[in-house]
Design brief:
The radius of gyration is 47 Å and the shape is elongated. Helices cover about 70% and strands about 5% of the residues. It has a domain of about 150 residues: Heat Shock Protein 90. The protein has 26 helices and nine strands. The chain is of the alpha+beta class and about 775 residues long.
């Protein structure tokens, strides 16, 4: 729950005449900036994270029952209805899920679900900017929940109703909000919902400390902490930050720092969105260190908060924190550094156009303080005139008005404008009486004392100094009385807690002894039983393992036999296929002896070469170590040997060079490759060269992208200029095209300095085996003439 409604609840007030900052000054500045940030940090919790939303969206789609689906939809509707600054799309999502929840509940109406939907719709109206409709629906729902005696939902409803009064910090508004929170507490106390109860007490403590009722605030904060601990709830960073502020108001700055640092540690380690709270905590730590006189540390923490505000693109907060840092520089008597720093801020960040709740002009106030410290009164006058102009605004926040008056009084006192200073002293006194803060009245008396001293009206000056001291003593006595009262309460509480703790420890000790005796007996019996069970299980497991091993061994032997038989069968098949192909070649050879037609004879010989290419492949398969893969270097070498012998390449002065990567391929790839090589090499031998001969190069390798490349090139005369590969319709060319498609490859022919035929085709891992030593095989076949 975002119980801390403020980004920063305290501001540093710098007065040139007083070296120390007063508590009332901080309180006044606290109340001055509260409205500026209420719209940013709400007391409502966002218990559902973005990751949880994604999970709920998935659950909604796969929910097995209507109840599960309805639960997911309700949580999604609640999430989108309670977003801090929802955009139109998020509001549409909220409306969609609310309507879907109503439809799902309509099938089997449940009164409690109807109440929950009404609470969510009320929050939706508030987020949508329709608070009147939301509050009316909520008040009607509260009456219905009362009649149903549903204390959990009644507590949540009252808590939600209190949120409608979180937009300003007027006394009556805060009283109304406290009343609704007390009603929520009364409802939650009748349930076991400790976390919700703790949140109510935490918010009550925050409101009471803003109303200066620190005793009650301390009591409520400690109750909240107790309930959180009882519920084992760990997201307590906001409560520890609140306790730090409370100890700050009591002047116990070291304890305040301890609580703030604890809050910072929890917030940083949490997975929740604590960015703004971390910013607030750093700001509070800055004030703590100011009170201890450790100004450099104060600047460090203010600067950390400033960086968060910059990241969040919250310019209003940027200027508030910049003002804090400027005030520290002024306390360190470094006005030039303060001026340079503020100039950087005003150059980089635009000042917010609107002043929420007429909270005041932070820039003009800060520059006026700087130029007063520099004694550059001419420049200071411009900012003083701007503050005077703003005091004519009837809607100006009363605390801002008092702050303006104080700076205007200092300016006129410093520039000898005594009549104007007196005028604003009287105006400020009237304002401070309305505020009802004695410490601020004492500050005004000190300013009056400085004015009278400057005019050498010493009798009046002494009167105002005595008045200031009287107020100071009264405040001191009141503060001490409250501190003593708080100490007495704490002492009594600690005594009772110590007595209760002692009794609890005694009871725990006796129970521990009894439990220990029972545990020893139970452990002994359990250990014996466990050992017996383990022994039996181990014995059974060992028997089972032996049986499994025997089965696995027998199956492995059987599989090895089957694989061996399969290999021999495959080799026998390949052997018979090769023999059959050899018979076909013999028939073709016999037929060629009776042919007189040269064209037919050439066709027969071409067929012989093609059949031989396939026969060689089957020979390699049955003669190799495995019948599944073909060694491509050996296969291609034998194919080239055969073609060389058939065409007598040595006589034709043709040299065939082989550059082959040691690959073994599946027969499905090896057969098309062999036939393509047969056609390409045959064509090159027959048509590429004249009587001077030349060179043919055959290469096969795997590229870096995993594709295989088959290339056949010659240094012959090349193709005719008008040759069109796409239109070529010879048998050999058509075969190569078809075989290239069978390989799923890309077919290309280059006609430069001879002919280069290249096919790029993919190969799968189960079709490929690369030898361990991947050295390219390069052989030449050449017969000199």
């Amino acid at each position: 729950m975002r119980l801390n409604m403020l980004k920063f609840k305290k501001r540093l007030m710098h007065t040139g005449s007083q070296p120390k900052m007063r508590r009332a000054d901080l309180i006044r500045k606290c109340k001055l900036i509260i409205p500026c940030f209420l719209c940013i940090i709400s007391a409502r919790a966002q218990e559902i994270t973005r990751r949880h939303v994604d999970s709920l969206l998935l659950q909604k789609e796969v929910a097995g029952t209507a109840t599960e689906r309805l639960s997911s939809v309700l949580q999604l509707a609640e999430f989108f209805s309670q977003l801090r600054h929802p955009n139109p799309a998020q509001l549409d999502s909220a409306s969609y899920f609310i309507n879907q929840a109503e439809q799902l509940n309509h099938r089997s109406p449940q009164t409690e679900i109807n109440f929950r939907i009404s609470l969510i719709r009320s929050a939706f109206y508030k987020s949508k900017g329709e608070p009147k409709a939301g509050r009316a629906l909520l008040e009607q729902t509260i009456q219905e929940i009362k009649q149903a005696h549903n204390w959990v939902l009644l507590g949540k409803a009252y808590f939600e109703l209190s949120e409608y009064y979180s937009q300003d910090f007027l006394q009556q508004t805060m009283v109304t909000r406290i009343n609704y929170l007390n009603l929520a507490v009364s409802a939650f106390e009748r349930t076991d919902h400790l976390v919700e109860l703790a949140r109510c007490y935490r918010l009550l403590a925050d409101l009471h400390q803003m109303m200066n009722n620190y005793t009650l605030a301390f009591s409520e904060a400690k109750k909240a902490l107790g309930y959180y601990k009882q519920a084992h709830y760990t997201e307590t960073q906001g409560l520890y930050a609140l306790l730090g502020r409370l100890f700050y108001t009591q002047g116990d700055y070291r304890t305040a720092i301890d609580y703030e640092l604890t809050a910072l540690r929890i917030a940083t380690a949490s997975s929740a969105d604590n960015v703004r709270l971390i910013c607030q905590i750093n700001n509070n730590l800055g004030y703590d260190f100011i009170k201890l006189g450790e100004n450099p540390k104060a600047i460090t923490y203010f600067s950390r908060a400033l960086e968060i505000a910059k990241t969040e693109k919250d310019n209003a907060t940027v200027y508030l924190l910049a003002g804090n840092i400027v005030d520290v520089y002024l306390r360190m008597n470094q006005p030039q550094k303060a001026k340079a720093f503020l100039n950087q801020i005003t150059q980089k960040f635009a000042y917010p156009s609107g002043k929420l709740y007429e909270g005041g002009d932070e820039v003009s106030q800060t520059y006026l303080k700087i130029y007063l410290a520099l004694k550059q009164y001419d420049t200071a006058k411009r900012y003083c005139d701007e503050l005077i102009r703003q005091t004519n605004n009837p809607n100006l926040n009363i605390y801002a008005r008092s702050s303006y008056y104080e700076l205007i009084i200092k300016y006129y006192t410093a520039t000898a404008g005594f009549a104007e200073a007196l005028k604003y002293l009287k105006l400020n006194q009237n304002v401070l009486k309305k505020i009802g803060n004695d410490n601020d009245l004492g500050t005004n008396e000190i300013l009056w004392f400085h004015l009278d001293t400057a005019q050498r009206q010493y009798q009046s000056a002494i009167y105002h100094l005595i008045s200031a001291n009287t107020i100071k003593d009264s405040i001191f006595n009141s503060t001490k009385s409250k501190q003593i009262e708080q100490l007495q309460i704490d002492y009594g509480t600690r005594q009772k807690e110590a007595q209760i703790a002692l009794l609890n420890e005694k009871s725990k000790f006796e129970q521990a002894n009894l439990r220990q005796a029972n545990q020893v007996k139970n452990l002994t019996i359990g250990a014996i039983c466990l050992l017996l069970i383990i022994a039996i299980l181990l014995f059974r497991q060992n028997l089972h393992k032996q049986k499994n091993n025997e089965v696995v061994t027998s199956k492995n032997i059987l599989l090895e036999d089957l694989l061996s038989q399969k290999e021999w069968l495959l080799k026998e098949v390949h052997h018979r296929v090769k023999n059959n192909l050899q018979i076909v070649m013999s028939i073709l050879n016999t037929q060629s002896a009776y042919l007189q037609n040269d064209v037919a004879l050439e066709a027969i010989r071409g067929s012989q070469h093609r059949v031989n290419a396939i026969a060689l492949l089957h020979q390699k398969l049955y003669s190799g170590t495995t019948a599944a893969l073909v060694s491509m270097p050996a296969y291609i070498a034998e194919l080239i040997d055969y073609l060389s012998d058939s065409f007598d390449t040595s006589f034709r002065k043709i040299k065939i060079r082989q550059i082959l990567e040691p690959l073994s391929l599946d027969p499905a790839l090896a057969v098309p490759i062999g036939l393509i090589l047969n056609e390409a090499i045959t064509n090159a031998i027959k048509y590429a060269f004249d009587h001077d001969g030349g060179e043919i190069q055959v290469s096969l390798f795997v590229a870096d992208n995993g594709e295989a490349i088959l290339k056949v090139s010659d240094t012959g005369r090349g193709l005719p200029p008008d040759f069109d590969f796409c239109q070529a319709n010879s048998l050999g060319m058509e075969m190569m095209k078809a075989l290239g498609k069978q390989l799923k490859g890309k077919f290309a022919i280059e006609n430069t300095h001879g002919v280069t035929l290249m096919i790029t085709f993919p190969i799968e891992q189960n079709h490929l085996e690369v030898f361990e030593e991947r050295n390219y095989l390069s052989t030449d076949q050449e017969v000199n003439s």
